[in-house]
Write a structure and sequence with these properties.
Strand order of the largest sheet: 1-3-5-8
Strand content: 5-15%
GO cellular component, one term: mitochondrion
InterPro entries: ClpP/crotonase-like_dom_sf, Enoyl-CoA_hyd/isom_CS, Enoyl-CoA_hydra/iso, Enoyl-CoA_hydra_C
Structural class: alpha/beta
Keywords: Acetylation, Lyase, Mitochondrion, Transit peptide
Shape: globular
CATH superfamily of the largest domain: 2-enoyl-CoA Hydratase, Chain A, domain 1
Order of helices and strands: HEEHHEEHEEHHEHEHHHH
Protein name: Enoyl-CoA hydratase domain containing 2
Number of strands: 8
Number of helices: 11
Radius of gyration: 19 Å
CATH topology of the largest domain: 2-enoyl-CoA Hydratase, Chain A, domain 1
Pfam families: ECH_1 (PF00378)
CATH class of the largest domain: Alpha Beta
Length: about 250
């Protein structure tokens, strides 16, 4: 993300650009992991573009917030693993974007929060649904009701991020840690990883019996793959597997 004059705030044009990027990523079979990062030092995403929002009437606000919600859903629905590298401020819609990712890495100095109640708003791009799944209902309510900002270390302690790292001089410590995490995922069987993501995302929405059925369907899709056969052969031959995503 690179909208420096507006601290990567989510304006109409920027949101359109993100939709376009997601469309390309969704159908690119070479993509194994997606890392969301900022090229603007000290900020991940400052949230909604309130200067632009201020000029909208009520109907326009409702339409645009729905579009933001759809954007976060599109990020969550990417078939490959996604990682948010939070090296600076992730506020409001910026944190909701990070919450739409599968994994989150934050610099210990990063600041994040669903601050909408401090502006007379409430989270409208999935934050009220995704935050409780990360930190639990009680903590989610506290953070949303107060609009409190927390740092990367606090976020890690409550389970909001997977990893926290000290910031470096370049200001990209979270991105570097996210790359390391992505490189751990890259050698794994792509279809198995995708099916694992799908099973978790769909299974968490239903009761455990239905979730087990979803897992079974995902597993069944993986059985006939060449990668599964390669994994078994590599195990038998005591060598690293070479997965091709088929």
């Amino acid at each position: 993300m690179n909208r420096p004059h507006a601290r990567n705030s989510l304006g109409k044009v920027f949101v359109d650009e993100l939709f376009s990027a997601l469309e390309q990523l969704r159908f690119d079979e070479k993509v194994r992991v997606v890392v969301f990062k900022s090229k603007v030092k000290g900020v991940f995403c400052a949230g909604a573009d309130l200067k632009e929002r201020e000029k909208m009437d009520d109907a326009e606000v409702g339409h645009f917030v729905k579009r933001l919600r759809n954007l976060m859903d599109e990020i969550a629905a990417l078939p490959v693993p996604t990682i948010a590298a939070i090296d600076g401020y992730a506020l409001g819609g910026g944190l909701e974007l990070a919450l739409a990712c599968d994994l989150r890495v934050a610099a210990s100095s990063a600041k994040m929060g669903l601050i909408e109640t401090t502006r007379g708003l409430l989270p409208g791009a999935g934050g009220t649904q995704r935050l409780p799944r990360c930190v639990g209902v009680g903590l989610a309510k506290e953070l949303i009701f107060t609009g409190r900002q927390i740092d990367g270390q606090e976020a890690f302690s409550m389970g909001l991020v997977n990893h926290t790292v000290p910031q470096n001089e370049e200001g990209d410590a979270a991105y570097q840690r996210a790359l390391t995490l992505a490189k751990e995922i890259l050698p794994r069987a792509p279809i198995a990883v995708k099916m694992g993501k799908l099973a978790i995302n769909r299974g968490i929405e239903v009761d455990i019996a239905s979730g087990m059925a979803i897992e079974g369907m995902c597993y069944a899709q993986n059985i006939p793959t060449r990668d599964r056969q390669e994994g078994m052969a590599a195990f038998r031959e005591k060598r690293p597997p070479q997965f091709i995503g088929k």
